[in-house]
Design a protein that fits this description.
The complex is a heterodimer of chains A (999) and B (97). By secondary structure, chain A is an alpha+beta fold. Among the domains of chain A are: 126 residues, Ubiquitin-like (UB roll); 202 residues, FAD/NAD(P)-binding domain; 95 residues, Arc Repressor Mutant, subunit A (Orthogonal Bundle), CATH 1.10.10.1100; 47 residues, no CATH class; 91 residues, Aminomethyltransferase beta-barrel domains (Alpha-Beta Plaits), CATH 3.30.70; 124 residues, Aminomethyltransferase beta-barrel domains (Elongation Factor Tu (Ef-tu), domain 3), CATH 2.40.30.110. Chain A is 21% helix and 29% strand. In chain A, strands 9, 10, 13, 14, 15, 16 and 30 form a 7-stranded mixed sheet that branches. In chain A, strands 44-45-46-47-43-37-48 form a 7-stranded mixed sheet. The longest helix of chain A has 18 residues. The termini of chain A are far apart. Chain B is α+β, with helices and mostly antiparallel strands and 97 residues long. Chain B has one domain: Folate-binding fold (2-Layer Sandwich), CATH 3.30.2270. Chain B is built from 2 helices and 6 strands. In chain B, strand 5 and strand 6 form a beta hairpin. Chain B is globular, with a radius of gyration of 14 Å. Chain B starts with a strand and ends with a helix. Classes of the chains: A alpha+beta (999), B alpha+beta (97).
């Protein structure tokens, strides 16, 4: 006989049965059950297999500390959630759950053979056992270990659920709605402060739900909770969040909460988000996170049926499940007797209460004796027997001198154990508060706070319902007070049993150092006392080292039940106190959080903004193939039916060279620099001189960083004495603007200059090619397009199609070129007008790929393609741009540094393959002599490489050491198929004299 | 997420700010007259303070202004923020190790 539903009691609804399956078998529970309680009530005790040894495991706990009962919940192929604690899963009609880490079945697991191999699987086994031969790790050991390890599998299709995110502010955030948290929230809310109260469970109340006999202010505990929730719910200044875990405590009182919204529903609405991430900024935080009961460490303490004493009370009082019929209780603290008494009252037979403390004292002992329960003092546990469930426990006796004698073997179907409680200081520690070792209660408790935060109740080591309620109320009132809301803490009249929760962490006394059977410290990581002894023997004495070597506390439960036992056991072995051995760092998340809730809305179309140019719709309808340039969607080429990229680009290139092309250059960064000192500002910043730039003229500008390397380039036009229009590269727009602001604000705040980003104000339509002037002639008003009036590198104001326009005579193609700037909203209309007017001139829309080829034919660099952050103007062949008479500009001094002037720097050159049909790979390396084997002597790399239609051959740009001096030489580009011979040339392949540009 | 006190706008969440390196690294007034070593130090040498560090921040997604801050690198706490061009507040000399 094992677990059984009681006829009455508990907080489940016996009138609402719920059907579900576990490992394919159908079960029935009731509304209000967890998967754990419902299965337990049906007599199931085997919930999973352990991580390493595949030992059969049952429920240890009833809450989020459960290390064993991890299951996968399956809604459909995409909604398989692994590693959920059965204790946290609320059942719903049709729930499908599966056990994990077993093959072929939970009852018969072939990997349980690992238990026999356990001598090989000790601490650090993967460092020791699988070392030889070397190659075998990747080929044999790792695949086998990986296949055998890993508790579950994630779905292989994208997560279809939605996840919401929200920011919130409040005066007082209360974490935990147990007795302390409820009292704190009530006291804080009464002051009028904005309060958020969150609790990880479906039902608030915490440990108070396990105390049905207690009364508060003359009301049964359950009613007091109901009234408290009603009071809080009626207050508009209170937000009560159920199923909401505070998983992380971040600086300046930001606490991350994750609220589960639909996992407990049988048929969630398709539009409902599954979870909601709250980022709460609180003036004051009250941590009322309670305490977690410690297991006792003794041989065979992991058999199904060995459970925490408080869990048995939770199953009884909240879920109406009696966990066993014949129960042995191992009492490491007085409160363990509460479980013995409650189970006894519920009809179970208490085979023994074995008290493992030095002295069996306390109200619990007295109550148990009064109830006639058998109590054994100065006991220990030497072992357990059973297969998939426990059958008996063998006790020992501890004499005054410490010698251990064999005691009775007691038949039982359940063992309840309690080693005392560990305050849940996770969030406090995450907040960087200093923990303090309280030797009296043998626990770390919150010491000095680092945030505006206070702990209340069991999480700071406070014990007893009345004390806890008072502590919570005071903390709530004080927190509200510190947030600026005056109030007082009420006192509660409490009648409750007051059994002490104090116990001693560590392992139970054994006759030898190493017990004959495994005594588990960390159930989830399968770490035993033997592993810890071994680690200490091998010199791992800091708990941080022990943790990593043995993996204790490193599973998904983060050592909630194991941490203190491991620490105390190691400390005892080293003859030190726990604080001397140290405490591992608590990190977020407190319990696992889905990636989905972190990603929130930032996925799919909302992952990044998409920037489109004003002519995007036209490009779309005209068949453009787009490429991503930063966040921009840019038309790459406009293929005609049957054309691939190569053919389309060749056609577009020839059209520009022979007639006219039109290109959307709107993504270029644009900054308007205005003010009496605008010219001065730009001259200090750019390598060029702008003081002598006439109004209406433009200049190619090069911007360096202070270290002398090329940062950006663009065209800078003077619109008025005090007004410049600066363009930047598409990708550099934001950072150039930032750099300008930086110098203006911090180095030269005396300059009268203002900067405005106008990138998205202008639509830029480039019309390029020998017929460009003819195309514009009929459209442009108020501008003389003749070469004399509007020469290369000039700008004029005018109108086009009735729209105000800035018309630039510039070229990034080497052809006669204009860039029409019109307000962005008119971009597409003007584009369409230009296109219509150009039809008779053979106007051809072209994209970024054609633009790249055309500029490469002319040897125009692209910052970030030819340059890589280590190229000086001289390296990039841009020395001509430098204003020679200027005393200073950003980066000038660095150009005089010895390393910058030293020979051997990579310089921009052209490369022509000996075979004109061969197009080099961009990024390929360049070597001076052929036939080298690695490591080769690399002297440069290919930066740009294209098939040039107008030249009828391939061209490439490269950065090559001392490249200009190598003009005419043959170099080699080593490729998998062999060295490709190339000839070094000038980077200008087409119209070197620039006749076409000035046409 | 930290709250940073912009000297122009007041306290705002860290999301609105960008870090901009060590503060009070002034560009030499006459770079041409600055020796190689001194210029290299200006370019590259930064302190790696354990404790209170003076650094530049920009309220990039707010007022867009650069300002200076004293931050304790051991605790990640902002000791003070102040405007560019201002001397670090006195607390720095007291708190600095």
């Amino acid at each position: 006989m094992t677990g059984q539903r009681t006829t009455r009691g508990g907080r489940i609804d016996r009138t609402r049965p719920v059907s579900f399956t576990f490992d394919g078998r159908s079960y029935q529970g009731f509304a209000g059950d967890t998967l754990a309680s419902a299965l337990l009530a049906q007599g199931v005790r085997l919930f999973g297999r352990s991580f390493k040894y595949h030992r059969p495991r049952g429920l240890l706990a009833a809450g989020t500390e459960e290390p064993n009962a991890l299951v996968t919940v399956i809604r459909d192929a995409a909604r398989r959630t692994p590693n959920l604690q059965a204790t946290q899963i609320e059942i719903y009609e049709g729930l499908v759950a599966e056990s994990q880490n077993r093959w072929p079945s939970l009852g018969f697991d072939l990997n349980a053979v690992n238990g026999l191999l356990s001598p090989l699987l000790t601490s650090g086994f993967y460092y020791k056992t699988f070392m030889w031969p070397r190659f075998a790790w990747h080929r044999w050991y790792e695949p086998v270990i990986r296949a055998a390890a890993g508790p579950a599998h994630a779905p292989r299709v994208p997560d279809p659920d939605r996840y919401a995110q929200r920011f919130a502010h409040c005066d007082v955030l209360v974490v935990g709605a147990g007795p302390a948290g409820l009292a704190a929230a009530l006291a804080a809310a009464a002051t009028g402060a904005r309060v958020i109260l969150c609790d990880e469970q479906a039902e608030p109340g915490g440990s108070l739900l396990d105390e049905p006999a207690a009364t508060i202010d003359e009301r049964p505990a359950a009613r007091w909770i109901e009234e408290a929730l009603a009071t809080l719910g009626a207050q508009p200044n209170v937000t009560l969040l159920r199923r909401t875990t505070a998983f992380g405590y971040f600086p300046h009182n930001m606490v991350g909460l994750v609220e589960c919204l639909t996992d407990h529903l049988a048929a969630p609405a398709a539009s409902a988000p599954r979870e909601r991430l709250w980022q709460v900024r609180a003036r004051e935080v009250v941590l009322a996170t309670g305490a977690i009961e410690r297991p006792l460490v003794f041989p065979g303490n992991d058999r199904p049926g060995v459970m925490l004493a408080s869990a048995a009370r939770t199953y009884l009082h909240r879920f109406g499940v009696r966990v066993g019929s014949r129960i042995a209780v191992i009492a490491g603290c007085d409160e363990a007797y509460a479980a013995a008494l409650d189970l006894h009252a519920a009809g179970a037979s208490i085979a023994i209460v074995a008290d493992v403390r030095a002295a069996a004292t306390g109200e619990g002992v007295q109550a148990a004796r009064a109830a006639g329960l058998p109590v054994a003092e100065r006991a220990t546990v030497l072992g357990t027997a059973g297969g998939r469930g426990i059958r008996s426990v063998t006790l020992g006796t501890v004499a005054r001198d410490g010698t251990i004698g064999k005691g009775d073997t007691v038949d039982c179907d359940t063992v309840l154990m309690s080693g005392g409680y560990t305050p849940s200081v996770h969030l406090f520690s995450q907040s960087r508060g200093k923990l303090r070792w309280d030797a009296e209660i043998q626990a770390f408790v919150p010491g000095a706070s680092a945030e505006r935060e206070r702990s209340a109740g069991a999480c700071r080591g406070v014990d007893g319902l009345e004390v806890v309620l008072t502590d919570g109320a005071q903390a709530g009132a004080a927190a509200a007070g510190d947030a600026g809301y005056a109030g007082t803490a009420p006192r509660y009249r409490v009648i409750a049993r007051d059994f002490s929760r104090r116990g001693a962490p560590g392992a139970l006394a054994q006759p030898g150092i190493e017990p004959p059977a495994k005594a588990f410290v960390d159930f989830q990581s399968d770490v035993t006392t033997r592993d810890l002894v071994l680690a200490a023997r091998e010199g791992f004495e800091s708990i941080e080292h022990v943790k990593r070597y043995t993996t204790t506390g490193m599973a998904s439960d983060q050592g909630k039940t194991s941490g203190m036992n491991a620490l105390a056991f190691v400390a005892e072995g080293l003859d030190r106190t726990p604080p001397q051995v140290g405490l591992t760092t608590f990190r977020m998340p407190y319990t696992p959080v889905t990636f989905g809730s972190f990603a929130g809305y930032d996925r799919g179309d909302l992952f990044d903004p998409v920037r489109t140019t004003p002519t995007h719709a036209w490009a779309l309808t005209n068949g453009a193939v787009f490429e991503d340039v930063g966040l921009w969607k840019r038309a790459r080429y406009f293929p005609r039916p049957g054309e691939d990229m190569h053919a389309a680009v060749a056609r577009e290139c020839l059209a520009v060279r022979s007639g006219c092309g039109v290109f959307d250059a709107s993504t270029l960064g644009k900054i308007e620099v205005v003010g009496a000192d605008a010219a001065q500002f730009l001259s200090r910043l750019y390598v060029n001189n702008f003081a002598n730039l006439a109004v209406g003229r433009a200049r190619y500008g090069v911007l360096l960083r202070e270290d002398g390397f090329v940062y950006d380039d663009g065209v800078i036009a003077r619109l008025a004495d005090d007004r410049f229009h600066v363009t930047t590269t598409t990708g550099g727009a934001a950072r150039v603007f930032g750099m300008m602001e930086d110098y203006l604000q911090t180095e030269w705040p005396d300059l009268e200059t203002w900067l405005t980003s106008t990138t998205e104000q202008w639509s830029v339509i480039a019309v390029q090619g020998p017929r460009a002037r003819d195309v514009l002639a009929g459209l442009v008003e108020d501008v003389d397009l003749s070469p004399g009036a509007l020469p290369h590198m000039s700008v004029a104001r005018g109108r086009i199609c009735g729209v105000p326009m800035l018309l630039f005579r510039v070229s990034f193609t080497g052809e006669l070129g204009f860039e029409i700037n019109v307000p962005a909203d008119y971009g597409q209309a003007v584009w369409e007008a230009v296109y219509a007017a150009g039809k008779s001139h053979g106007i051809t829309p072209y994209g970024t790929e054609t633009m790249h080829v055309l500029r490469a034919e002319k040897g125009y660099i692209i910052v970030g393609q030819e340059t890589d952050g280590t190229a000086t103007p001289d390296d990039a062949g841009l020395n001509w741009a430098i204003g020679k008479t200027k005393p200073d500009f950003v980066g000038k001094r660095s150009l005089e540094r010895p390393a910058i002037k030293a020979p051997g720097r990579k310089q921009l050159v052209g490369l022509l393959t000996v075979d004109p049909a061969t197009v080099l790979e961009e990024g390929a390396q360049v070597v001076a002599t052929p036939g080298q084997s690695p490591p080769m002597q690399l002297i440069g790399h290919v930066t740009s490489s294209y098939a040039s239609a107008v030249l009828g051959r391939s061209i490439a740009l490269a950065m090559v050491a001392d490249g200009r001096a190598r003009t005419g030489q043959t170099l080699y580009v080593p490729m998998p198929g062999g060295d490709v011979p190339v000839q070094v040339t000038s980077p200008v392949f087409y119209d070197a004299e620039g006749a076409r540009l000035h046409g | 997420m930290l709250i940073i006190n912009c000297p122009y706008c007041g306290p705002r969440p860290e999301l609105e700010f960008s870090y901009a390196g060590q503060a009070h690294v002034a560009r030499p007034a006459d770079p041409a007259a600055t020796g190689d070593d001194e210029w290299t130090a200006y370019l590259y040498l930064r302190t790696n303070t354990r404790g209170v560090h003076a650094e530049r921040w920009r309220h990039a997604r707010g007022c867009a202004r650069f300002f200076n801050a004293l931050r304790d690198t051991t605790t990640d706490r902002f000791v003070a923020t102040y405007r560019s061009g201002e001397a670090p507040p006195a607390i720095a000399t007291e708190a600095a190790p």
